[in-house]
Amino acid sequence: MKSYFTRNRLLALSLLAAVSLFGPMPVNACDVVVVKSADLKPYRDALRGFKDASSCDVSEAELNDDRDLDTIRGKRPDAVLAIGTTAFKKLRVLDNVPVVYVMAVLAEADRAQLPPNISGVSMEIAPAAYLAAMKQVFPAAKRVGLLYDPRNMQTFVAEASREAAAAGLELTSRQVPDPAGLATALGSMHDAIDILWILPDPTVVTPETIDYLLRFSIQHTIPLFAFSKKYIEMGAIASLDADPFDMGAQAADMANAIVAGGKGAVRAYARKTRLSINKKAAGKMGVKIVSESARRADHAD
């Protein structure tokens, strides 16, 4: 018994000495609850990035019905992270806690109506970054074609038009409010573009329309520049992807600032990108990869 108390006394003295030398041990004083839309690898990567950069304790929660939403409210977290569109649509009703979204596709109306307690990282990459990548891969191209649904991408396309003009490129855009109008929109501009740029617009890019877009690209020898590497594997020439892990870290930076007393919503484009090139498809289309940075891109070897 004596040795037991002696050991504990020595341990207590050691801890006091450590505190006096190095200061109090860091303790997470905040909590973040995370809800994923599904158990997909990109969502798991985003969560890893968030946890890696978060200054708070991070716990996951299920959100199947209103009772689960009440449970999250009852935990009184300092912030809530929604990963994916489905999770965000369920969590955006929370008005008594900061909500941060990542990897969510938001319609134009959604963006305009977001309350001040909601911040997030956009699925889109900044238009200037897209256009700079296009110039690396296709330095001779001057005319870029873009299809979009104004209900989803109006603000993005307006910014893209300004950035294209500043970069010495001509942006030809066509509105596609319904997938049925895709063929007509493409047909009206195939003689006026050197690159076809597709965005994460759920009206324009669907499992049905992507095949048509790829056939159009091959038929008219117009390279397809996409927003996801998976389209490279289907035949697109190049893509610029956001990095899910870094998007999670970016969301953590937002949450850290909010918990520390930051005021107002913060919404940003994904900051880290990965360029991918389908060298085989580029060769068949007669596209030569001349930029050194493009040569180093994924799939460029």
Which properties best describe this structure?
Rossmann fold, about 300 residues, alpha/beta, 2 domains, six-stranded parallel sheet
Describe this structure in words.
Helices cover 45% and strands 20% of the residues. The protein is an alpha/beta fold. A 6-stranded parallel β-sheet has the order 2-1-3-4-5-11. It has a 6-stranded mixed β-sheet with strand order 7-6-8-9-10-12, with helices on both faces. The chain is elongated.
Structural topology:
Layout: H1 2-22, E1 31-36, H2 41-53, E2 57-60, H3 66-75, E3 79-83, H4 85-91, E4 99-104, H5 108-112, E5 118-125, H6 127-137, E6 143-148, H7 150-166, E7 170-175, H8 182-187, E8 195-197, H9 207-219, E9 224-226, H10 229-232, E10 238-242, H11 244-259, E11 267-270, E12 273-277, H12 279-285, H13 292-295
Parallel strand pairs: 1-2, 1-3, 3-4, 4-5, 5-11, 6-7, 6-8, 8-9, 9-10
Antiparallel strand pairs: 10-12
Helix pairs in contact: 2-11
User: Could you give the distance between the termini?
Assistant: 70 Å
Pick out the low-confidence regions: 1-27
Largest sheet: 6 strands, parallel
Q: Which range best describes the helical content: under 10%, 10-25%, 25-40%, 40-55%, 55-70% or over 70%?
A: 40-55%
Strand order of the largest sheet: 2-1-3-4-5-11
Query: What would you call the shape?
Result: elongated
CATH architecture identity of the largest domain: 3-Layer(aba) Sandwich
Could you tell me the number of beta strands? Answer: 12
Mean of residue pLDDT? 87
The total domain count is 2
